Amino acid sequence: MQTKVRVEIENVSLSYGRVEVLREVSLTAEPGEFFALLGPSGSGKSTLLRLVAGFTQAQSGRVLIGGEDVTRVPPWKRNLGMVFQNYSLWPHMTVAENVAFGLEERRLPRDVIRDKVTAALGLVGLAEFGGRRPNQLSGGQQQRVALARTIAIEPKVLLLDEPLSNLDAKLRVHMRGEILALQRKLGITTIFVTHDQEEALSISDRVAVLEAGVIQQVGTPMELFDRPANRFIANFVGTVNLLAGTVEPAPQGAVFESPLTGRITLAAPPARAGAVQIAVRPHALALAAPGAAPDPARIWVDGIVAEREFLGEFVRYRIRAGDADLIADQPHLAGEPGFAPGNAVKVGINPAQVKMLGA
Amino acid sequence: MISRFSLAQATIALAIAAFLAVFLLIPVATVIYVAFTNPDGSLTLSHLFSFFQLSLMRESFWNSLIVAFASVVIASLIALPLAYFTVRFQFRGALLIQTLGVLPLVMPPFVGAVAMQLIFGRSGSLNLLLGEWFGINLPIMEGLNGVIFVEALHYFPFILLNLTVALANIDSAMEESAQNLGASGFRLFRRIVFPLAMPGYVAGASLVFIKVFDDLGTPLVLNVTNMLAPQAYLRITSIGIEDPVGYVISVLMVAFSLLALWASALVLKNREYATLQRGGSTLARRRLTPWQAVLAYGWIVLVLALVLAPHAGILLLSVTRVWSYSVLPEMYTLANYVTVFEDSPRMIANTALYAGAAAALDVVLGTGIAYLILRTRLPGRQLLDFMASAALAIPGVVLGIGYLRTFRGIELPFMGEPLTSSWIIIMFAYVVRRLPYALRSCMAALTQLHVSLEEAAENLGANKRRTVARIVVPLMAGGILAGFVTSFITAAVELSATIMLVTSQDDAPMSYGIYLYMQSIAGRGPGAALGVIAVALVALGTYFSNRVLKARAAELEARL
Question: For the whole model, what pTM was predicted?
Fold first, then answer.
């Protein structure tokens, strides 16, 4: 196998006419890392991946692979393996011919090609399918052929462009497990583009979140979830309640104040005093009946249940509190009726789970 | 910043542009130049004035316009009901109607014109019967009537096909909304259905206009010479290549063809009715009431009889010793075929060579242009498409005259033969004239290919050239083949440019042979026999390529 390489993107800017697709983007994927590019459609994540693959050219900036500047190297000389969203298997070739293509382009001897094709197909569990045509395979099998075709050339880096988006929900979860297992086995640096935050968080070592051509935050999945850098990240990665108010420094850290919540003492010192928003996840809110004795560690506010949505493992409530709507997730256990729309409830905010964001 | 295109791409684009310049732009420009200059090179309108001072020319001018417009009108009258039947009603005749669509491709009007005269002429089958039964004689084939009748019957399928596609793309919700708001019956058709299908109709109608304007063979075979195309031909061949009036005629012909194209583009502009919504359905098909069925089938049978008349007539004529002043021929023989095979096996070989080479070059050019336009960011690439498509508006006679004038005195290297008297010039005329057909096929094929199929190849180590060879061309093969066949069969029956450029019997293709035979009464039999052979070859080619294409389409379909 190839040695693991680092992928570095330095100050890349790209625009189509007046549309800025990427703005001063810098990123590093460490050797052997499973790195996800996460963002909504139009955020520039696919463009960034295609830039690494060499299919688009940036107006400025550099791309380094294993320390070597490849900015001006054409795609066919980069030796990177890309799996396309629609798999892009060639319909006029058999599965084995598809997998052999890259090896033939490298002018390898015939018997070497045969061995490598067999090995690659074996690796994805399709050893028996070499003689089939791509259109005789299921979606999941086509996906595996695309993977086999890519890893057969032993690329320096694996680039995956929304590889799971064409599969149904069950298969998607299964395939992402397989892809991760394959990546771990080969130890190959992998960059994975997706718009699905669950997908990105569940399998990546690190995630870069893009929005409007700008990197919003780079970090491990848990960092993104627990310490979102801004409102966009907080909203995009998981669901979040945002409350506006003001903050000022205090001996213990900071004091947040808003008409709804009153004063909340927070442990982290504020970046600056003044208007801010606080973010709190739905599952960090507790609900209690108006008469119940409240947990004194939480800040309690009064509200009315506006909607309830039963989601199996938990019930999602939308609660009208003052002029704010709060989303609260409560675990569901059999036999517990929960609260009905129209009921008055108390919502408990745990200050330790509150994250402060810029206004 | 890396340049947006490679040197190789630019070289190919320049080579194609150079070819189109030499064999299309410069000849046409030469024709226009000669029409508006004195021998000393100074600009003048005197040739134009002298054209309009000749009463024969004025007459030809109006006759050509009358014939073109009348042909469009009659073709529309035939095509409209047929198109409407197929999309509107549950109907068994759809396949028949589709078959009608390919007939003008496999047999050009001039081949059947003589047969039409024998059937519909003053002393043809129909009038003999009518005279016997009712004592009347219909002047169907008299003078311009004959040209209009033959052209309309041959070219109405262009309107039929375009209109059928346009009608089939109308979302039933469009019609249902109108019904919901109170429209029905003919008002519904006039106010909603026809306006929505208008772009298709206009595209077809302008094509018919251009085709009729271009056609030289039909008037010549029917002995109608007071039209523009025959006059251009006669002026140049009888008075000579220097006669400025021939060039003025050419300029007028180009102008009217361009006008027709421009008018249709104008009507179509901002009217891209992408009417069939995602998940929508086409117009609801109704069941025919018994009376409607009688009318619909009656109309179809009548049209079919008329359309098949030249084909049947030419077949009859080819096995006939003498056929005149009788409803059906009286003596049958195979001697005509023997004559043809003895006389002119060379013509068949010539047609295969010219049309084959031209079609091959067409698909090479077509693939190249399609690739440059759809896959590169080469500046000015749209110009190639524009130039290649403009060939559609250049009548064959004009191109022929342009070649004769532009290339006179130029000798072929190593052969010592003048280019203008070589078969190569005929072949190049075919290449240019049929390039628009091949280009459309190639563009359609490449448009359907997802770019990522090529990117996957590049990603795996294949450079642009290897990607084109291993991925693009194999996957475009169906479209390339379709383009080849269309170019081939239409080039095989091309006459307008052929007549201008054939200089010796040895170099003549079949289309010219048919025309020559048809000039004399005695030659009609062998001419018809040669026509039948041409139609049979073309039909066979179409059939086999259709089979290959269908298999290919099924294979590609399955992957999507």
Answer: 0.79
Tell me the residue ranges of DSSP E strands in B276-367. Answer: none
CB B59 within 8 A of CB B228: no
**pLDDT at residue B1, as a whole number:** 34
Q: Residues B363-385: pLDDT tens digits? A: 999 999 999 998 888 888 888 88
Q: Collect contacts of A115-121 with beta carbons under 8 A, ≥24 apart.
A: A116/A152, A117/A152, A119/A152, A120/A148, A120/A149, A120/A151, A120/A152, A121/A95, A121/A96, A121/A145, A121/A148
Give the best residue of B377, B460, B556 to mutate against chain A (max A CB count within 10 A).
B460
pLDDT digits (tens, 9 = 90+) for B216-259: 888 988 888 888 888 888 888 887 777 888 888 888 889 888 88
d(CA B143, CA B121) in angstroms, rounded, equals: 10
3-state secondary structure B471-530: HHHHHHHHHHHHHHHHHHHHHHCCCHHHHHHCCCHHHCCHHHHHHHHHCCCCCHHHHHHH
Neighbours of B64 (CB within 10 A): 25
- Which residues 34-93 on chain A approach chain B with CB closer than 8 angstroms? 53-55, 57, 59, 72, 74-82, 84-86, 88-92
In this complex, the residue of B455, B460, B474 whose CB is nearest that of residue A101 is B460
DSSP notation for A195-253: S-HHHHHHH-SEEEEEETTEEEEEE-HHHHHHS-SSHHHHHHSS--EEEEEEEEEETTE
The helix, strand and coil proportions of chain A, stated in percent and rounded to the nearest 5, come to: 30, 35, 35
User: Tokens 């045509």 identify what position?
Assistant: A133
Which DSSP state fits B287?
P
CB B262 within 8 A of CB B64: no
Q: What is the CATH number of domain A7-235?
A: 3.40.50.300
> In this structure, how many other beta carbons lie within 10 angstroms of the beta carbon of residue A31?
14
**CB-nearest partner of B459 from A82, A86, A133:** A82
**Domain boundaries defined on chain A:** 7-235, 239-358
* Percent above pLDDT 70 for chain B: 88
**Consecutive sets of 10 residues in chain A, 359 residues long: mean pLDDT of each?**
82 88 92 93 90 90 92 90 89 91 92 93 90 88 92 92 84 87 91 90 92 92 87 84 84 82 78 81 87 82 89 89 87 83 89 78
Question: All domains of chain B, ordered by start, with CATH?
Answer: 7-27+54-559 (1.10.3720.10)
Find all residues with CB under 8 Å of B489, minimum gap 6, and list them.
Answer: B105, B106, B355, B538, B541, B542
- List, for residues B283-335, the tens digit of each pLDDT value: 666 676 778 778 878 887 888 888 888 888 888 888 887 666 666 666 667 77
CATH class in words for A239-358: mainly beta
Task: Report yes or no: A158 at the B interface, CB cutoff 8 Å.
Answer: no
ipTM associated with this complex: 0.78
Q: Which H, E and C letters describe B37-105, residue by residue?
A: ECCCCCECCHHHHHHHHCHHHHHHHHHHHHHHHHHHHHHHHHHHHHHHHHHHECCCCHHHHHHHHHHHH
Structure tokens at A347: 């919502």
